[in-house]
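Deliverable D4.2, example record:
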Amino acid sequence: MRQDYKTRLPAIALMLWSGLSVAQEASRINLQPPVTKVAERVYDLHTLMLYICLGIFVVVFGVMFYSIYAHRKSRGAVAAQFHENTNVEILWTVIPLLILLGMAWPATSTLLEARDTSAPDLTIKVTGYQWKWGYDYIKGEGEGIRFVSNLATPQEQIRNQAPKGPNYLLEVDNPLVVPVGKKVRILTTANDVIHAWAVPAFGVKQDAIPGFIRDTWFRAEKEGIYRGQCSELCGKDHGFMPIEVHVVSPEKYSAWVEEQKKKMAAAADDPGKSYTLEELTARGEKVYAANCVACHQANGKGAPPAFPPLDGSQVVLGPKEAQIQTVVQGRPGTAMPAFGKQLNAVEIAAVITYTRNAWSNRTGQAIQPAEVAGVKTAGK
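Output generated by the structure prediction step:
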């Protein structure tokens, strides 16, 4: 018997170790670690509600199973009558009321704190596009900085199962940068359909609705990189619309602001300048890769019927005025968004020039920014 126990001991130890590993893995299935006071309160509220629900479950099912066992027919139990029993009526009214109040009080106070966007140190407007985010620093240090944030991982790398990092669907080319310990007010809106700006570690999730301005806020208390995603089904590439926020020290933030302003000044486009075909084509290829390739593909073949091909397209090869108007103003009722608010005149001229001279399209035409500026002005 002793020998049998010794032979089974390794198996028992393995079972215990496996159970411990499963328990450790299950402990990771929870909300992200909070880095703001609001997120901490949301986390605590979530845990409180879980315990309350667990307690109700244990009590209700405990009473039910005890009643089934202790008052079974085989023991000669006789069904009791509780009709018009005042004590029972009071109990099943007062107890749920107390439970409700116990849940409502912390939930209401947390919600009120989450909606208090007064006295921010920094205000940033976040605009949702299909399928990227636009950031405008409109008040506070960094005022005037503006950029668009796209998924950094190329679609070809995603589709081809190439080697990727753990956050390949949550990495962007231009992350949002904010200082640690500062109250940041986020104003959300959208250019096309409803999006939602959500960063779980901040306890933030705010819808971005076309034609409306909604707001939320956060104050990150720990430096680091925090990620989120669009949390509203917004179309074909909804799953490729990540959010990346870098929380840095005030000194690093000030340095970043200066760097961004220098980059903006150096990259400022002159809409009155005439560019060569080669200059526009080279610039347009980059603009196309950042804004158009998700729908129309790198080879220009698109994904008909939702996303028509540009290679050999009658619109691309037709009158340039029609294509300019389509790119600037979009096509209502289709997946073609209006890029007039996302790209400047030089970028639009460059990408149109690229499409008219890429693949089998060889028009030899160069669209100048002045031609685009006229359409953008008329559309306002």
